[in-house]
Each structure stands twice: as structure tokens, then as C-alpha cells.
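From: lab user (bench 3)
To: helpdesk
Subject: output format question, protein + flavin-adenine dinucleotide

Hello, I'm new to running complex predictions and I'm not sure whether the block I got back is the full result or only part of it. Here's what I submitted:
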Amino acid sequence: MEPNGILIYGEIKDNCSIAPVVTELLTKSRELKEKIWNQRIMVCVIGPRMNYEEIIKTLGEYGADEVIIINDDRLKQYDKKYYGEIFTQIALKYPPRIILAGATYQGREIMPYTAIKLNTGLTADCTNLDIAENSLLLSTRPTFGGKLTADILCKTFPQMATVHQNTFKAVKTENHINAIFDWIDIDKIENKSKIINIIKKNISSRDINTADIIVSGGSAACKDNGFTLIYELAQRLNAAVAGSRAAYENGYIIKSQQIGQTGKTVAPKLYIAVGISGAAQHIAGIKNSGTIIAINKDKNAPIFKSADIGIVGDLFDILPELIKELDKEEKDE
Ligand SMILES: Cc1cc2nc3c(=O)[nH]c(=O)nc-3n(C[C@H](O)[C@H](O)[C@H](O)COP(=O)(O)OP(=O)(O)OC[C@H]3O[C@@H](n4cnc5c(N)ncnc54)[C@H](O)[C@@H]3O)c2cc1C
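Helpdesk reply: Thanks, we reran it on our side. This is the complete output you should expect:
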């Protein structure tokens, strides 16, 4: 079969709904499809048996032409070997020109596996996608530590790319979608690893993907209980807690709370950066934020170039004052 169309990895959240990055990739794919003649947009959804009606409806609303569903109760728990192999087999059965996935944990595990199996290239963490004059996918991503952006043309098929959530906006359309319930022989997949137990880390913070307000800490908050102040402020503002890579490397946040090029791209209404210098790799993850407030004791810190409101001062003086004021306001109410 001739390679045709765009195949998107239809990541499912909590075994019940489609991950937001999928609808964002669908919206972008509609634009790409316009530029490559007679192409379809397919989504491959892998998971346990469940009611797929809502998922199919959502995918159609964002422009998918076809959804290929592989459902088996053994797929209730995400396992990279099963999911990677199934996705690869679907890509072989319905060969696309382009494969897209979210730069999520799953996307980051499955896509390199598929790229190796299909003997093709993969451009990870793209900040834009377009179609070049020769009808090839043009993937843009930061390079040289974020100082430059590179346009990458992969000349082997399928052309593969991953994109962070919130990089593109999801916009609805009207489309007729065709659902295919396909089957892959899971028993034939050799899986040398086995998930024995899943322990969820207890993080007392809201989800940074959906929070309206994010309070984010940098290396400056990684001492003298700086992150305790960040959590206290976040709690008063009903905000999520995030941080820079330095905060992650120092063990104050987990990977899913890291913002930036190698972390998450977020789009809150308000982003409060506390003791973060504003390296290009960090800014890459916050440029879709509504208002950015930066607190930094160095008036020349680069973060102030991206901030709407800048507060020059010591976080250990400013955060307690802010918390005190918010507590006072709550009492007065
Ligand atoms: C390929 C690559 C990918 C990367 N990906 C990411 C990424 O995804 N996300 C990311 O964040 N980084 C990423 N980085 C790292 C990035 O380059 C920076 O090193 C990192 O963002 C710095 O973190 P920071 O701002 O918390 O720390 P620092 O650079 O140490 O900045 C701390 C800031 O706090 C201020 N400060 C110090 N004390 C106080 C105080 N008491 N009160 C107020 N302000 C104070 C300082 O003036 C300084 O500006 C990446 C780097 C590379 C090369």
C-alpha cells in the first residue's frame, strides 16, 4: 500500500478520554492536509474495552477522517512494549506519510520504538510543523540549547514528529469520521518486562496542564524551605506548582512538573516565576501564558524580558508578604 495520510497516536487519559494534545495535533494536521493532496487523517487509539462513542465523536469534531481502535482488556495499564508494538503494526498496516504524537511520556517512549522498527527518523519536541515545497514535513525545533531553531526535513518515510501539549490550539470543525475496530495478536508480542505494581506519588498540587494559575520555582527556591513557600502561595491561589529544570534536578519537583523545552509547555492565565533566571529553554515552555509575573533579586535577570510584571527582590522577603496579604484578604471576606 502506498503511504498516505497522517497517523496520530491517539493517547487516552485515565482509560476514558482523549488527551488534549491529540485534538491540538488534529487541528494542525488539517492545515498540513490542505498542503498535501488527497491525504487522510487517521488516529490510532490503543486501550482496554470501553465505550468509545465519546472518543470517536471528539476525534471527528477535530477533523479525524478515520480512527483505528485496538482494544483489549490486557491494555488497561499502559505498557510501552505492547503499546509501541501495536502502534508500529498499525503504522505498517495503514502506512502513513507522516506520524505525529504528543511529546508526553507515552509519546516519548512509543515514537522512538516505532521509528527504529520502521527504520525512519524522528524529530522530537517540535515547536512548529509545516509542509515544505517538496511536500515533505518540515519540523521546527529548538537547537543549540534553545539559542537557535532548526527546520528539519526527514527524507525517509514515514516522517515522524512529537509536539508538546499547548504548542497548537485545538479548534473544532465538522467532519465525518470512520471508525475501524482492528485486531492485533497481543499474545505474539514478546514482552520481557512485567509491571508488578504501580505506586502513585502523592503530590499536593493541581494539574499544571489545566490550572489557571501556576506558581513556579527555580534553583533559588531550592534552599531554606523556598519550595515550602511556593506550595503555600500556590495553595492560597488555588494554583498548580511547577519549576525549572534546576528545581527538578534538585529533587523539589517531579519530571511532570518541569516546565520548558525538555519539560511541559503550559498556557495558564497567570504564571508566577519565582527565582527563575529565564533561560531560553525555560521560556520555551511558558510563552503561551496569559500574564507572567517574575520575582527575581537580579534586576538584569533575562526572565524580566518575558515578564508582564517584574518584582525585583528576594523571594524569601516577597513570598511571606504575599502569603500574609492573601491570608488577610481571606479573613476580611
Ligand atoms: C538541551 C537543554 C534543555 C533544557 N531544558 C530545560 C527545561 O525544559 N526547563 C528549564 O527550566 N531549563 C531547561 N534547561 C536548563 C536551562 O538552560 C537553565 O539552566 C535552567 O532553566 C536554570 O534554572 P533556574 O532559572 O531555576 O536556575 P538559575 O539559572 O540558577 O537561576 C536562578 C535565578 O534565581 C535568582 N535568585 C537567586 N536567589 C534569589 C532569591 N533569594 N530571590 C529571588 N531570586 C533569586 C537568580 O538571580 C537567578 O536569576 C535546559 C538546558 C539545555 C541545555
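A quick orientation on your result: DSSP finds nine helices and 17 strands in the chain. Let us know if anything else is unclear.
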